[in-house]
Design brief:
Number of helices: 8
Shape: globular
CATH superfamily: P-loop containing nucleotide triphosphate hydrolases
Strand order of the largest sheet: 2-3-1-4-5
Order of helices and strands: EHEHHHEHEHHEH
Structural class: alpha/beta
Distance between the termini: 14 Å
Number of strands: 5
Strand content: 5-15%
Length: 176
């Protein structure tokens, strides 16, 4: 079984993905971690990497090839990836939605090293830039919109749910 989880920034993809993988005894991979590692190696922030990706397709290709390779392995796994559904269409495709204000608050509260913003307004601005950048790139490179909910088997609004509740819903649906 392969599950791909996509979703809006701050929807809980990583924390939910890890929990679902644990419950279903699946390997867990996070494409965001691949990107953070690339940014770290280059000595730049994740936001700077996103800007660079708009000009230098080789970064997307590197990340895409990692996803394709994971899909070819066929092992039981969960992949946290905005466009994993595109590269692994035979996966169970999950989309986590969230109210943009709630997502921004979650990201601001996390204060990851690569996503530290001075205030909530700056967090919202950076999220919007990231979404716009990704949408442009994915449309240009793959002719897809990862926010088109028709691409997914399961859609969950996480706005008023904690990660455990979201994981409960996913596992319950998969076991049906």
């Amino acid at each position: 079984m392969i599950i791909t989880i996509s979703g809006r920034p701050g929807s809980g993809k990583s924390v939910v993905g890890k929990e679902v993988a644990k419950r279903l005894n699946l390997k867990y991979y996070c494409v965001g971690d691949f990107q953070r590692e690339i940014a770290k190696k280059r000595g730049i922030s994740l936001a700077e990497l996103g800007k660079l990706e708009e000009k230098d397709r080789s970064i997307d290709i590197e990340v895409d090839n990692m996803q394709k390779e994971l899909g070819r392995k066929g092992d039981d796994m969960l992949i946290d990836s905005r466009i994993g559904f595109h590269f692994i269409p035979r996966s169970i495709r999950v989309f986590l939605d969230v109210d943009p204000d709630v997502g921004a608050m979650r990201i601001f509260s996390q204060k990851r090293d690569d996503e530290k913003f001075s205030d909530l307004l700056k967090t919202k601005e950076e999220i919007k830039k990231r979404i716009d950048s990704e949408r442009r790139r994915y449309k240009k490179y793959y002719n897809i919109d990862h926010y088109d909910l028709e691409s997914y088997d399961m859609i969950i609004d996480t706005t008023r749910l904690d990660p455990e509740q979201v994981a409960d819903e996913i596992v319950k649906e998969i076991k049906r």
